[in-house]
Amino acid sequence: EAGVAQSPRYKIIEKRQSVAFWCNPISGHATLYWYQQILGQGPKLLIQFQNNGVVDDSQLPKDRFSAERLKGVDSTLKIQPAKLEDSAVYLCASSLRDSLGYTFGSGTRLTVV
Amino acid sequence: AQSVTQLGSHVSVSEGALVLLRCNYSSSVPPYLFWYVQYPNQGLQLLLKYTSAATLVKGINGFEAEFKKSETSFHLTKPSAHMSDAAEYFCAVSGAGGTSYGKLTFGQGTILTVHP
Asked: Which residue has the higher pLDDT, A105 or A97?
C-alpha cells in the first residue's frame, strides 16, 4: 500500500511569510494527525482529524496556524505569519479509525530565516 | 496527563553488543506504549507497541520491550546490534481510552550509534 505522502520535502521562507504543507494519507484512513518536531525534540501533536472534523486542536497555535481536511482525505497545514521558532519538521500521520500505532509520512522540513 | 522520559540522549554500542534504550512513563490512565525509529530525513517507523496484552512485546528488526508497571518502564532491547540499527529512537505513550486514546506523547529521543 502507498504510504503517507507529504509535500514539499523542504521549504525555506523568511519570517512573517506564509507557508502551506500538504498531506495525503493512506487510502481509507479516517484519522489524520499533524505533528511538529523541533530539532532535538520528540514530535508534538498539533491537531487531530477524524474524517473531516477536528477532534483535538488544543496544541495548535491558532493565532498563526490553521489546518483543514476537506472531504476527509487530504489535509493542509498553514502558518501565517511564520516565526523563527516555527523552524521544524512537520509530520503527517494517518490511521484507521480507533487504530493505534499509525503511519507517518517523511515530513516537511521548514526553515524560517 | 502523560509523559515519557528517555534516559540518555545518546547511546553508543559496538556491533554485536546488547542494545538497551531506557524509557520511563507517567500516566494517570492505563497506558499504551510505543517505540518508534527515525532514520535521517525520514518519518517515524513503528518498531513495537504494548496494548495491555503480553508484557513482553516483540517488534521488527529483532527488537523487543518489556512493560513493567511496578517500575513504570518500557525499555527497548536488542541482543546483538547491527550497523543498520544506527538511528534515533523515540518512546511514546498514549492513553488506553478517553480523550487521550490514540494521541501520542513522545520522549526526547535517543540517538543510537553503532561502532564496527
From this structure: A105
Rg (CA), chain A: 13
Q: Is B111 on the interface with A (CB under 8 A)?
A: no
Residue B60 binned pLDDT confidence (cut-offs 50, 70, 90)? very high
Tell me the C-alpha distance between B43 and B87, whole Å: 12
Residue A87's pLDDT is: 98
Cβ pair A56:B92 closer than 8 A: no
- What CA–CA distance (Å, rounded) separates B108 from B94? 15
Q: How far off is chain B from A81, nearest CA to CA, in Å?
A: 25
Q: Hunting for cell 488544543 — which residue is that?
A: A58
Burial (CB count within 10 angstroms: exposed 0-12, middle 13-18, buried 19+), residue B109: buried
- Per-residue pLDDT band at B42 (split at 50, 70, 90): confident
Nearest to B11 by CA among B86, B99, B98, B83: B86
Residue at grid coordinates 550509534: B113
